[in-house]
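Re: the request from the purification team.
They wanted to know what the chain is likely to look like in 3D before they choose a buffer screen. I agreed to run a prediction and write the result into the notebook, where they can find it.
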Amino acid sequence: MAGWTNIDLLPYPNVDLIADVTRPLPFENVQFVFAEHFIEHLAFDDAAAFLRECRRILSPQGVLRLSTPNLDWVWSTQYHCGEWTTEDAAIQECFNLNRGFYGWGHRFLYNSQTLTALLHSAGFRTVELVTYGESRHPELRDLERHERSQDTPELPHVIIAEAEGIGTTLDLAVPYAVSYRRDTNLRWHALQYAALGFLRLGTRFLRAIGLK
């Protein structure tokens, strides 16, 4: 986009800076950061680190604008438990829901409450949920370019949030986040299964020699 420093991991046309945004960014005192349909492609902890980095590089008056798929919309439009009239419909919606979670490189989908909490934990004082293309800041209006889906009367298909101000940086280490990290960490599972395997072998050995 003209007037912006466009960042990507790969050297696509019109990319100004090739960077891994899960690492520190070479900016300071930035006025605006805009990320459309991006944060859902990061693992939860990488997303948390990215948001903290956004808060760090923004000026005290700077604003972060994010858009991301709305988990509530995905659930309500892709999966209708108990309403299926055929087995095939149930199977199709099983695939639809899993595609929403894992398709297109998605790693984590947010509802508005979780995204708001994560932005506050990253050090933003205020979080405002806004509509597509609208903003109190003229520089942030009409930026979205991603392909759109049909909103429902109750739910938008994307969450668009603007975060600003300086708050307290916290770790979103509530029990459900801790257990999520544990249960989605492949290295932890590898260690866990290795320990279980060792325990089973030890038990078999003790039984074989008559000690258990």
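For the purification team: Helices lie at 44-57, 71-78, 87-102, 112-121, 175-183, 186-208.
Please add any questions underneath this entry.
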